[in-house]
Design a protein that fits this description.
The complex is a heterodimer of chains A (149) and B (82). The longest helix of chain A is centred in the C-terminal third of the chain and has 18 residues. Chain A contains 4 helices and 10 strands, in the order E-H-E-E-E-E-H-E-E-E-H-E-E-H. Chain B is built from 2 helices and 5 strands; from the N terminus they run E-H-E-H-E-E-E. Chain B has a 5-stranded mixed sheet. Classes of the chains: A alpha+beta (149), B alpha+beta (82). Chains A and B meet through strand 5, helix 2, helix 3 and strand 9 of A and helix 1 of B.
């Protein structure tokens, strides 16, 4: 179970392979990668800055992983989340889940992303032609998280 | 003392990322602290937003959460990671 919050870029493929390599009993690995887009809400996006709450971020992610492990029989979980300056096309987040069979891995990955998006203290600020702007929280993300309750 | 921290859009609007304040018995919950900060003036009205989130000792909580001497409190807008 690895959780990393880091300034440095990462390679999602490497993370996915490592998750499986850790345990030969793993029959299913699901990986989600979130990327910086070059547009949002009608504006071009030239880059992004991700702020977070050091200390709380790691605790919140660990708590989310703990909840996922209580719900599904997971053999591995990994979360990598970038902070600092990012360019369009770069991966922001990787969530990987491993289990004996696919359904637990799919569901746990979905659950972790829904909770991460609504409970982990990260904030995006986009650089647009009109200047920097903070990204607003989405009601659809709140609704997605509520379906697990 | 209590440590208060502000993040993202709130940090920018307030022009500071945090401060230490003396704890008093009147500050019995996070909302009491928030109301004291709102009384400082116009810039502080961002803390009146209904979408405001707060944390006590690095855990999300409601504004009704009790506040104790030595706590770390944070106010921030809805999170947008992932």
């Amino acid at each position: 179970m690895a959780i990393r919050v880091q300034l440095a870029a990462f390679q999602p493929g490497v993370e996915l392979e490592a998750l499986h390599a850790a345990n030969a009993g793993i029959g299913a690995v699901v990986g989600f990668v979130g990327y910086v887009r070059d547009y949002n809400d009608g504006n071009a996006v030239a880059g992004m800055t991700l702020e977070h709450y050091p200390g709380m971020t790691e605790k919140a992610l660990a708590g989310i992983v703990e909840q996922a492990r209580a719900r599904w029989p997971l053999l591995g979980v990994e979360i990598v989340h970038r902070v600092g300056q990012l360019q369009p096309g770069e991966p922001i987040v990787f969530v990987g889940t491993a289990s004996g069979h696919r359904q637990a891995a799919f569901d746990a990955c979905n659950f972790i992303m829904d909770y991460l998006k609504t409970r982990a203290p990260f904030w995006k600020r986009e650089d647009t032609p009109e200047g920097p702007r903070w990204v607003d929280g989405r009601a659809s993300d709140q609704a997605a998280a509520q379906r697990w309750e | 003392m209590i440590e208060v921290r502000y993040f993202a859009r709130y940090r920018e609007a307030l022009g500071c990322d945090g401060e230490s304040l003396p704890w008093t018995v009147e500050l019995d919950c996070l909302d009491a602290l928030r109301r004291r900060l709102l009384a400082r003036g116009a810039a502080w009205q961002v803390l009146a937003e209904t979408s405001l989130l707060c944390a006590r000792n690095q855990e999300l909580c409601s504004l009704a959460e009790p506040l104790r001497d030595g706590d770390e409190v944070a106010f921030f807008p809805p999170v947008t990671g992932g």
